Structures
1.
Amino acid sequence: MLGKIQKRATKLVHGREKAPYEQRLKALGLHSLHWRRLRGDLIETYKILTGKENIDSSQLFQRARTTELRGQSLKLYKKKISTRCEKVFFQPKNC
């Protein structure tokens, strides 16, 4: 829904009505809704992992057990995904 609104709003700019969506975004200095959601997810993940949010990170993430992190202390374990639900939803390990 929000994506449709953004697409429609970019068509309202005079002289850009016929341009492809990606070109309209670039001309207006905007990012796609997909990119903004991904960025928001990454920022929220960082805040949870660093304790800036009042959420127990162990309920959502499993830290990697390797010692070869090149100075990075926030590396996460990535489990294999077996269902579409797990691909789409951000849920605690216990669900």
2.
Amino acid sequence: MIATDLSEADLSDCKFHNCNMERTVFDQTILRNADLSTSYNFIIDPDNNDIKKAKFSVHGLPGLLMKYGIEII
């Protein structure tokens, strides 16, 4: 799913298994109950997308916190 535009898509309950989401755009995307726990290289702004009850792995945290300039080591 490299360089895919998912803006304004309703992806509720979707399961993304081992998806490389490099350069994928999430803007006003609904990800309620979505499972991205095995996906990687995504950047998702939690303030700009509905991620209620979505599943992410610990390895996905940098992609959720990118806008805050937090370094996770």
3.
Amino acid sequence: MDECILEPGKACNDCGECEICDLDETKVCDNCCRCLGDADYKAIEVTEIIMPKEIKLKRKKEKSND
């Protein structure tokens, strides 16, 4: 079961709230990047990479075998 990205600790119920445009609440995000503001470039800062448990376990096993 997936976890809600807007409310950590809560199970995802496929409400779609995380797919709503930040600038226009009546539309689904289409990755236009207008919410990022005016800049010479468009970027999003990655603060965390969340990996499925199966991948984490597999990587730990591979590292311990080295």
4.
Amino acid sequence: MIDDIDRAALGARLKDAREYRGFSQEDVAKALGISRSAVSLIESGARRLDILELRKLAALYQCRIEELTGEQQTQETDPDSIRLVARAAAALSPEDRSEVLRFAKFLQARKSRRQQ
């Protein structure tokens, strides 16, 4: 039972990392040399993955294995994430970029209120 919960949690972290990096399941499947359905099974916790696959995923997602397994939290000030946000925002219209900026300021204000 615990193993199933751990696999499900790992699968959820892998899916989050994949989506965060902007990869499709097909992209990941090609990088690992497995089928897209196998990636889906891994992300749902229904398929085990070996350490070699986990290493490849960590390299693909540009993170540490410990972040994927939940043994280490992702650093809060991740320069890669800042670059990803900037890249995504650059593709938006000026109005949408303004909205993203407004939302970022809202999040900063909310964080400040929580820390008080």
